[in-house]
Amino acid sequence: MAESLSELQKWMHNALLRPEATVPAEAEDRLVPNPRLSAPGSLAIYQQSYALRIAACMREQFPALCHALGAELFNDFVAEYVREAPPESYTLYDLGRRFPGFLEANRPDRDAEERESWIDFVVDLSRFERAVFTRFDCPGAEDMDLATQDTPDADLRVNPSLLVGQFRFPVPWYYHEVRQGNSPSPPDPAICYVAIVRKDYLTTTVLLQADQYAFLEALCDQSRVDGALALIASTGSPPDTVRSPWAPDKPDLRNAWIRAGFFVTGP
Questions:
Q1: In this structure, are residues 126 and 114 in contact, taking their beta carbons and an 8 Å threshold?
Q2: pLDDT digits (tens, 9 = 90+) for 192-215
Q3: Quick one: pLDDT at residue 232?
Q4: Mode of pairing for the β-strands spanning 163-167 and 156-158
Q5: SS3 sequence, the chain?
Q6: Taking a C-beta distance cutoff of 8 angstroms, is the pair 61, 133 a contact?
Q7: The model's pTM
Q8: Which of 37, 74, 117, 242 could crosslink 66 through cysteines, CB 3.0-4.6 Å?
């Protein structure tokens, strides 16, 4: 009985992901040789090209992580990741979406009473790089009216591309050092809060204080300033600290965030 197209595609998919398990006779049965190469030989070239393309794509999405691990170890992680979580889309843009989760789930100390600081750093760096990468093509404010310093609080809305995060290491610093061509050593643990935003097609990162992070996280959830302040208050925060990141006597912070493109205007 002839093999169906879906069965052939499944076999080819497995052959690309696990070339070491490919049986030459199966390739000869399914693939047409050319005058210069046998079917297994042609498949081996394609397998190698596929692996190199996947690794190159992941290095583009996680350049700082590749620097931290070294190219050889990084490529080994990628090969195992693709075997466990093969691409789901025709585009490689989404290839790294599950990579931070893969690193966390497969960390060698996951059952240990004490976690290794180095692995925490690797996981956090992958999370940060994935967040930065997704800002390039996510919905943004390029077709919207950006807020100005004169925009009333009631009319401020969050830039759709704004994303805030909390990390156990200063991974934004490490990332930018690598992107600038430097060779930094892994930093010591230190809680880090950061906002990532795209304005005029340029992605920037802004470091935050803890209360600023809490306010912007609430604002991303609630959309409006008054709603964000109410949400923070509902957590039991002391009344005098609820408005601390948005106090009337701190116009410089508000204006800096507006210049960075955190806000658009809207009803």
A1: no
A2: 999 999 999 999 999 999 989 999
A3: 87
A4: unpaired
A5: CCCCHHHHHHHHHHHHHCHHHCCHHHHHHHCCCCCCCCHHHHHHHHHHHHHHHHHHHHHHHCHHHHHHHCHHHHHHHHHHHHHHCCCCCCCHHHCCCCHHHHHHHCCCCCCCCCCCHHHHHHHHHHHHHHHHHHHCCCCCCCCCCECCCCCCHHHEEECCCCEEEEECCCHHHHHHHHHCCCCCCCCCCCCEEEEEEEECCEEEEEEECHHHHHHHHHHHHHCCHHHHHHHHHHCCCCHHHHCHHHCCCCHHHHHHHHHHCCEEECC
A6: yes
A7: 0.83
A8: 74
Can you give the pLDDT at residue 38? 73
Sign of CA dihedral 239, 241, 245, 251: positive
Which parts of the chain register pLDDT below 50?
1
**pLDDT confidence of residue 238:** 78
At 51 the pLDDT is 72
Distances 194 to 60, 161, 179, 216, 261 between C-alpha atoms, Å: 22, 14, 17, 10, 14
Can you tell me which residue has the tokens 């304005």?
Answer: 199
Q: Pairing mode, if any, of strands 192-199 and 202-208? A: antiparallel
pLDDT value at residue 32: 60
